[in-house]
Amino acid sequence: MSTDLNTYLVARQLAQVTAQRANQEAIRYQQNANWHSLTWQQLAQQSDAVAAALLALQVQSQDKVGIFAGNSLEWVLTDLACIKTRAVLVPIYATSTSEQAAYIVNDAGVNILFVGEQAQYQAALAMAEQCPSLTTLVLINPELQPQPSRLQIIPFAELLATDAAPFQAELSQRFNSVALTDLFTLIYTSGTTGEPKGVMLSHKNIAAVIQQHALAVPLAANTLSLSFLPLSHVYERGWSLYVLSQGGRVAYLSDPTTVQSALTEVKPEVMCAVPRLFEKIHGTISAKVSAAPLHKRILFTWCLRQGRRHYQAEIDGRKRSGIAVALHQLADKLVLKKLRDALGGNLQMMAAGGARLDDQVNRFFQYIGIPLLNGYGATETSATVTCNRIASRQTRGVGLPLPNLQVRIGADDEILVKGDTVMAGYYNRPAETNQAFEDGWYKTGDAGYIDNHGHLHITDRIKELMKTSNGKYVAPQLVEGQLALETFIEQAAIIADGRNYVSALIVPDMLQLQAWAQQQQIAFETPEQLLSNDRVQQEFQQRIQQNQAVLARHEQVKQFTLLPRPFSIDRGELTPTLKLRRKVITQVFASEIDAMYRRRH
Description:
Elements: H1 10-20, E1 25-31, E2 34-39, H2 40-56, E3 64-68, H3 73-85, E4 88-92, H4 98-108, E5 112-115, H5 118-127, E6 136-139, E7 152-155, H6 156-160, H7 168-177, E8 183-189, E9 197-202, H8 203-216, E10 224-227, H9 234-245, E11 249-252, H10 259-266, E12 270-273, H11 275-291, H12 294-316, H13 322-341, E13 349-352, H14 359-368, E14 372-378, E15 383-387, E16 400-401, E17 405-409, E18 414-419, E19 425-426, H15 430-435, E20 437-438, E21 441-450, E22 456-461, E23 466-467, E24 473-474, H16 476-483, E25 489-495, E26 502-508, H17 510-519, H18 527-532, H19 534-547, E27 557-562, H20 582-588, H21 590-599
Parallel strand pairs: 1-11, 3-4, 3-5, 5-6, 6-7, 10-11, 10-12, 12-13, 13-14, 26-27
Antiparallel strand pairs: 1-2, 8-9, 9-19, 14-15, 15-16, 17-18, 18-21, 20-21, 21-22, 23-24, 25-26
């Protein structure tokens, strides 16, 4: 396999696949919940039309083009059009507020912004006056109607109708001049203070992603992948581009909440997902088994045991006896195959990343016969740093480093990374870029160790940034700072890391709360009695809901617990400078935290 990264430039890879597989299926997409498909030739023609339209709109090489939308065919076409014109796509999560989107548009200097649905459209119109660089909105949803604005507003259908022929010379010139050093995308990640930083990923970074994954997780041409995670995140976008670069097919799901039904409709062979999906599937099956009659529970346990023995022999490279093979075949027929069929029946591999995956959940999928490749990465490393391989997949740790990528453990057990997938730096932030590196090694902010077999294990999070099991980043200081604006709240500590939503431990301002309770004629003898009162709980619920309206949905607190005492330095819950010691707090209040996640499913 060539070591020249120019060979793996994504534009070059996709052009080669298009020439080889012109009339074969490339992608599937949804319209009105129905699935449609495009051949490679059709995908090339439609993305050429959008690319030509960008040229007509005077988009220059390395200009920033924003997209503020959920997954769709148009998202993919816009991405490909930016690749073809050497523009830099700047994705914005569809759930972002207008303030968050405006910050990104201004920081990146976005001129043209693609918007998806009504919510993003209204947010874009609202922020227009605060974004001097913004000149044009492109409306993806055909039902959106132009509204009065200083901005030029264009339906996506107009771009798609552009005749690309007059622009072919310019498109060819840009295609031939793509360089590894060109900026490919700017992806904004939330900092611990809530102010996003633009991660600069180059064409070299994406070329290295393709090269390294082709070595570590090779895919056959025509392999079908289901895409349901946000394309705004480097994980799904990088994976989908890798699949396409290998001549694979991608089915783009527009509504991620329908992923479980889509599995049986699409019947994918591979997919990447965050731990929350695997947790939900495992939880649903476990609940059904628990409610089943005794004989069915015994049968399920026996079959899963046969799956475990088969998996372990496979990983150890041991040949099994005839009777052991026969017992596994029986277990497969009775239970294991039915479980795989419930997930489409064709899955050859699933990648798990974006957050911590529970070992028990990991083992379950391995035992039923679906290889689950656990991994670890960051936006700054173009996603994957380490992942398991099919032949050596483990149910602990996060796998082996990708080929041509170096990983070592630095001071404070911090995981350091060096290689071609590591970002060029943070956009417009030279000081923070310098802080992120140590002698050329990217400092991940995560602590861990490498075992005797070379597998990486994550032990702690040095950096403050939290990540839910859905793979969404949450800046705790931002959320806690917002909660602290509520006069009834004295202190707040949010919980989000590895959880499927944000919760909070809240210390009320007891003086204010007691005064309010007296006005409301609420009788109580102890702080505990007051805090457990239904009217007090309802009042806090209403105040918190109003308080956090400015936060994105995934940042908002869904459950809370009122604590009768403040966090203290003496108990080790606060530093001498009054910063929260999160690890101590989660240990001290473990039962309260667990109770919050039992309340909501």
